[in-house]
Structure to design on (162 residues):
């Protein structure tokens, strides 16, 4: 009789363990898939934002040259309107960075960039414009580097907690 009870208990224990191990494997796979999807969303949002900043920066540099060198009033007006449009695109892209981001420092770094880029076309002379261009280029690069550093895959660096 004791042998029968032991056999039944062993069978039940074996069935339970057989059920539990695949379940844990599925949970791990689901967690990895969710983390990878979130990482990709963060990278896509940060890439789109950096691209929007570069385009906004480019139009303001173009605006400066048109206003200080050879632009007609109509060209200057159109470039100013294009600048407003690209600033809106950059702001929308920043919202997409903020949504999946768990890192307030990265979001704050992203918020600072447009404020400095806004000042590009206000440079009084070419040397000042060049200095501001270098400064804003560096700021965009630093944002990209910070975003890249905060979204590595598990096991290869850090992935912010969800």
């Amino acid at each position: 009789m004791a042998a029968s009870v032991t056999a039944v208990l062993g069978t039940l224990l074996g069935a339970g363990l057989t059920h539990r191990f695949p379940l844990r494997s599925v949970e791990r796979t689901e967690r990895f898939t969710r983390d990878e999807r979130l990482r990709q969303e963060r990278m896509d949002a940060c890439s789109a934002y950096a691209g929007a900043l570069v385009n906004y920066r480019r139009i303001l540099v173009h605006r400066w040259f048109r206003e200080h060198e050879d632009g007609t009033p109509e060209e200057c007006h159109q470039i100013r309107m294009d600048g407003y449009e690209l600033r809106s695109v950059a702001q929308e892209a920043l919202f997409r960075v903020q949504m999946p981001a768990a890192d307030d420092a990265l979001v704050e770094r992203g918020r600072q960039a447009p404020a400095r880029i806004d000042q590009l076309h206000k440079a009084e002379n070419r040397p000042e414009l060049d200095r501001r261009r270098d400064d804003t280029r560096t700021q965009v690069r630093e944002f990209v580097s910070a975003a890249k550093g905060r979204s590595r895959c598990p096991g290869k660096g850090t992935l912010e907690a969800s």
